[in-house]
């Protein structure tokens, strides 16, 4: 089993339900461990869209990195994610942030996620469930000093964790 960290985001429809449903589907192949609080976040990369809800989650998996990507993309497809403009609105987005012991950069898959260092909407939830040095060669708190964390607001514990 390998430890992985994911970022989930949604800004269309019933956002909380989208996150809950995605986690339930992920649990089939990823033994979900920790799940962060839910954060309401200003859109990054394409500003003319609704605010997102974001969480980070950890899990253990026997899937290879490529199998895990196919699995997460299958979940996005099953939740009727429709591609719009880059960084645009979506029902659900599941990004693979980290995969234990893996550093790779292929056409399909880059791990650690290539934009993990510049996204407070990823770093703030991740910091809640992981060690500060979880990103190889980086400190989450130091990265957040660069990105700032304005526009990332905790709205509470995931309601389904009750
Ligand atoms: N670590 C990763 N996690 C998820 N997808 C990845 C990763 N590395 C590369 N990709 C590739 O990124 C492609 C685009 O993914 P997607 O359409 O979700 O981009 P996006 O979410 O809009 O932007 P971003 O990747 O910056 O979050 C996917 O088809 C996938 O092959
Ligand atoms: N706040 C926020 N902004 C985004 C998000 C996201 O999950 N949250 N996902 C994106 C797709 O890469 C682009 N922009």
Automatic annotation (TrEMBL):
Pathway: Cofactor biosynthesis; tetrahydrofolate biosynthesis; 2-amino-4-hydroxy-6-hydroxymethyl-7,8-dihydropteridine diphosphate from 7,8-dihydroneopterin triphosphate: step 4/4. Residues 86-97 form the 7,8-dihydro-6-hydroxymethylpterin-pyrophosphokinase domain. Keywords: ATP-binding, Folate biosynthesis, Kinase, Nucleotide-binding, Transferase. It catalyses: 6-hydroxymethyl-7,8-dihydropterin + ATP = (7,8-dihydropterin-6-yl)methyl diphosphate + AMP + H(+). CDD domains: HPPK. One of its GO terms (biological process) is folic acid biosynthetic process. PANTHER family: 2-AMINO-4-HYDROXY-6-HYDROXYMETHYLDIHYDROPTERIDINE PYROPHOSPHOKINASE (PTHR43071:SF1). This is 2-amino-4-hydroxy-6-hydroxymethyldihydropteridine diphosphokinase. It comes from Youngiibacter fragilis 232.1.
